[in-house]
Amino acid sequence: MRGLLRFIYKYRAFELFILLEVISVWLLVSNNRYYNVSYLNTTNSVVATTNQRIFNTQKYFSLQEVNEKLAQENALLREQLTRLLYSESYRKLPVNDSLLDRYELIPAKVERNSTAKNHNIILLDKGKTHGIESGMGVVGPQGVIGQIKYVSNNFSSAISLLHTDTRISSLLTRDGTIGTTQWDGKDIGIAKLKYIPRHVPIAEGDTVITSGFNSVFPEGIMIGYVQRIDVKKNESFYDIDIALSTSFHNLNMTYIVKDKLGAEIDSLTTISEE
Amino acid sequence: MTLKSALTYLLSFMGYVLLQAALLNKLVIANSIFCFFYVGFIFLLPLNSSRMLQLLLGFAAGFVIDLFGDSIGVHMISCTLAMFIRPFWQQLVLGDIKEMPGFINIQGVTIFRFFTFTMPLLLIHHFVIFYLDAIGTDFSFSLLPKALFSAFFTFVVLLSIQLFVTSFTKKK
Predict the structure, then answer these.
(1) What confidence tens digit (pLDDT) does each residue in A100-138 have?
(2) What percent of chain A has pLDDT over 70?
(3) What is the average pLDDT across A242-259?
(4) β-strand A143-151 against A103-113: which pairing, if any?
(5) Once rounded to an integer, what is the mean pLDDT over residues B105-119?
(6) Which residues in B lie closer than 8 A to residue A50 (C-beta atoms)?
(7) What does the angle CA A31 – CA A37 – CA A40 come to, to the nearest 5 degrees?
(8) What's the CA angle centered on A22, arms A21 and A26, to 5 degrees?
């Protein structure tokens, strides 16, 4: 017994090392596996408030740029509004109340954002109290941004499109082919468009938008433009690079998409899959 | 441990970590070269500090940095590993130094020895971080050069601060 105790005491540093490593690995793995159960991230209130203070100071120096961007977005929205009001199709549209206001957009400010890692996360200043839930989509004036992962009372963090686990159901406007957009961790301006079959006609410059096939993003949100098309031997799909429409290094205002019919659609999908 | 030394530890811990979270997390060259300056705190802990304390402080520093970086586990794993290796490496490189009060500093050792002591630890620490971040992606490219350049970057920042502090105290 005494020998055993002496042995344990002698190698105590090694044992502590193993213990600490096991804890770390467990945290790393469980944090990746389960959504929204962990408080060990930037939505933690102490961390979030500190981050907010830091970011507010930094933001002060970029007010000019932010103003210009907002003005641009205003102009764009005004243009779209006018076009919509005078378009023939709008007047002929059969009215379906529940579909017309299916999506609610909740404006949120970016508190912290990273682009340099493979798993980039964006911290937003809206949380549970504003009706945010895990899984909601995040869009910006220039297009798709990401999806909410963690939510605390006043903050939420979203996995960016620049996160190698993010997959976005996408649609090629040329002929309506459905594919998946995923980032490969290399260039912050370029993502891959996957699962587009080789027989589909496609050209550089084609527009890629969201498909609306799930309750995360509405249909027709901009993702980017086809930049490079490659065909590899013995592969049934194209290898396509798309230039992302959103510039992720200076994100500022975003909108969190709340799909009011999301639960209904999801439950229907679950039933039909069973 | 006296109260004074405990206070020194706590203050420098907060200094390093806050500086890292506020400033240096933003400072990324070419979107791939990072500066993990906070490791200065754990790598330069006093020569005679106990191994258990070194391990625990490494673990704690990694934890706080992970909270701020949304990467829970990554820095914890690499810091704990680096702090486990540190005593062996210290014995090998700085084993002959008997007396050095406070944190390891450039006045106590030459620049060359400072380099040989910190650089391998920085390399291991940085490489583990980039490896963990890249798991699950196609990382056949540039893990090693990324770690190498980042370790150099961190070293340059650490050294500049050391030199700055040295010149400041000499003037006094």
Answers:
(1) 567 888 888 888 888 888 888 898 888 899 889 888 999
(2) 87
(3) 87
(4) unpaired
(5) 87
(6) 21, 68
(7) 60
(8) 115
Write out the E strands in chain B.
none
Adjacent-strand bridge partners of A179: A170
Determine, for residues A12 and B52 on separate chains, whether the beta-carbon distance falls below 8 Å: yes
What interface predicted TM-score (ipTM) does this complex get? Answer: 0.84
Q: Tell which phi-psi region holds residue B46, choosing left (phi > 0), alpha (psi between -120 and 50) or beta.
A: beta
Query: How many residues are present in chain B?
Result: 172
- B contact test, residue of A11, A15, A28 with most B CBs within 10 A: A28
- The pLDDT assigned to A33 comes to 55
Q: Which residue of B has its CA nearest to A24?
A: B73
**Cβ–Cβ below 8 Å for B77 and A185:** no
| Residue the block writes with tokens 């070293």 | B155
- Identify whether the C-beta of residue A181 lies closer than 8 Å to the C-beta of residue A191: yes
pLDDT per position as a tens digit, B39-61: 999 999 888 888 899 999 999 99
Q: A107, A254 in Cβ contact below 8 A? A: yes
**Chain A residues lying within 8 Å of B22, measured CB to CB:** 54
